[in-house]
Amino acid sequence: MAFIILAFGLLEALDKWRNMGAQDTGKEENQSINKPPDQPPGLEVAEREFSGVWGKIVDAALALLSILIIYWTLNATADVVIKRSLYLMITLAMCAVIYPFSKRSPLHRLSVVDTLVVIFSILGSLYVMYDYNERFVRLSDPTSLDVFFGIVMIIIGLDIGRRVIGWALTLVASGTILYAYFGNFVPGTFSHPGFDVGTIVSQVYCGLEGYYGMATKFMTRYVVPFILFGAFLEKTGAGDFFIKLAFSLTKHTVGGAAKAAVVGSALIGSISGSAIANVSSTGVFTIPMMKKAGYKPHIAAAIEAAASTGGQIMPPVMGAVAFIMVEFTQIPYLKIVSVAAIPIILYFITVATFIHFEAKKFNIGADPSVSELSAIRIMQGGWHFFFSLALIVVTMALGYSPAMAALTGIVSLVLVHMIRIRRFDIRLIYRSLVLGGRYSLSIGSIVACIGIILALVGLTGVGLKVSWFLSDLTHGMAFLAIVFVGLISLVLGMGLPAGPAYIVLAITAGPALVDMGFSLLVAHLIMIWFSIDSAITPPVGLASITAAGIARSEPMKTMLTAFKFAKGLYILPFMFYYRPAILLDGSLGMILETIISVLLGLITFAAFWDSFLYRSTNLVERVLLLLATAGLLLPGLLWNAIGGALFAIVVITQKVAIGRSTQALRGAPRA
């Protein structure tokens, strides 16, 4: 494997040397085409943009991917092996076409390595489709050709994951392969006899456990259809509508531009399910407005990153992690959406509370000029976007699959758009299909690496061993178990997107939480909430880095500030276990009492952390706020009453102090 990777590198170097002159000539032109002017630090690898005939061919391939997803949604009886193999073939090949092998690869054409990856992606996938029933029979005894194509496809999968997502997931998948092969050298509990290359290849490539198993299934069945829906929304003007609506709703509030970022990111994030895409689409509007209003650049970027991070799990779509959870737990999607609604709203309120305190600190008031139109006028021009979202929920409530619901939303968008413009806009449909196919590559690129991890975790039994280790380490204490899951997510957050981070947590820590008495729903919601912090976690929180690039702020400072604004991500998972009424588990009275006390607890925590309520807090007030936070968050009416009383004391103390200061200023003699 190392030899093949080295050979790829040598081929790339030879290709670079052979075309050095041509690259130098076109270097400036390529950079201007492929690298956005405000590209954030750390995201220097550009995507290829083709023009002319090659551009049309690439667009056609991306549109074909989208069309296949729609066809498979309509034809549920399509052959599973053919469907998943074809999806992975197009995804791997198009990733090799659009994402260069390295930073030095040519941006105007394919390199030798890229060409080889495309060819072998096609050959390896066609081989899987050919006479697969016979291959299933010989899974325990793969042929030399099985092993050859398996090794090549594994290397290609690792390479594509590295190109698109980065080294983190590729290293985890590579480590899983090494662990499967050298397990007999591992001491202690995690030791196993070790498996030969044929067994590893058979598990990953030849059967339905790895490449063509769960990961590919949830992509084709759940994730990509909603990515297509998001592309159609974007092309029909939803992004502009949601941004205008957010500004119109918050223009009369303190720090309105920043609160517009929260509202806009919640609306757009619900559809895109990607923190980076959310920042890129809303941040270009909200961050400059926040800076203009008076927010420091790193604070403006951090607000957008924190809000966009929460958008990943905003109902009704909730992004890829919700669909992955459906596959892991078999809990109905609508139930997941319904119980997730209250916690994410509380999260956004927490972010807005931090924003309010920052605005008060720096005397940033309302800015009615940011939106000339009223919310009602804006709604009149874009109500159909909410209709499409509501139609998705209704379709799933009627028992149809999420993919069919997404397709229903797409059809409704197209029909309303045609009615509004009074013609059939085939160009918009085609552009949306191309955009959806392109967007699907970023999440589709992880399928191979995830397939490797899932297949070999099952083969080696390491998931059960990690679960046993976690249970033993925490001595069965639920609080410590949640803390350890959070710490693991922080480590995984240093490079993994939310989806892969959740999958790794689910197959390792998930069984341990369930064995310790956590319900399946609570255990997986805890892991999802901890996993989405990967977008902001230092040192490589890509949503924060993207926002820093737009704001032209220092990335590390932005990540640390976003980490502060997103504190709700680390508090609410504890509430899922200790106060399950927040997940609608209990009587109506208990649910209302829990929501109110947790909401006040989050507000008091924000005031404690920011050292500000109505004015800056002193030491005694901060201590009271910390005690009030604990009382309000702990289960039990007595604790909540004590916490509420302590919070009221601080509120009254600050109000009285502000009143005296105002009265003193009014009574002071004029100079």
Could you write a compact summary of the structure shown?
With 671 residues, this protein is mainly α.
Architecture overview:
The protein has helices at 2-18, 20-34, 52-74, 80-98, 112-129, 132-137, 144-164, 167-181, 197-206, 214-235, 238-250, 256-272, 275-293, 297-311, 319-329, 333-361, 375-397, 402-421, 426-444, 447-460, 462-474, 478-492, 498-508, 510-515, 520-531, 542-551, 555-565, 568-578, 588-610, 619-633, 637-667. The chain is mainly α and 671 residues long. Among the domains are: 2-18 and 52-215, no CATH class; 236-438, no CATH class; 587-663. Helix 13 runs parallel beside helix 26 (542-551). Residues 1-15 and 17-45 have low confidence and may be disordered.
**Alpha-carbon distance between the termini?**
83 Å
What's the pLDDT, averaged over the residues? 83
- Tally of DSSP β-strands: 0
| Broad shape | globular
Using only C-alpha atoms, the radius of gyration works out to 26 Å
**Multimerization state:** single chain
- Specify the number of helices: 31
Low-confidence stretches: 1-15, 17-45
Percent helix range: over 70%
* Structural class category: mainly alpha
β-strand amount: under 5%
Write the layout of secondary structure elements.
Elements: H1 2-18, H2 20-34, H3 52-74, H4 80-98, H5 112-129, H6 132-137, H7 144-164, H8 167-181, H9 197-206, H10 214-235, H11 238-250, H12 256-272, H13 275-293, H14 297-311, H15 319-329, H16 333-361, H17 375-397, H18 402-421, H19 426-444, H20 447-460, H21 462-474, H22 478-492, H23 498-508, H24 510-515, H25 520-531, H26 542-551, H27 555-565, H28 568-578, H29 588-610, H30 619-633, H31 637-667
Helix pairs in contact: 3-4, 3-10, 3-19, 4-5, 4-19, 5-7, 7-8, 7-9, 7-20, 8-20, 10-15, 10-18, 10-19, 10-20, 11-12, 11-17, 12-13, 12-14, 12-16, 13-14, 13-26, 14-16, 14-26, 14-27, 15-23, 15-25, 16-29, 17-18, 20-23, 22-25, 22-28, 23-25, 25-28, 26-27, 29-30, 29-31, 30-31
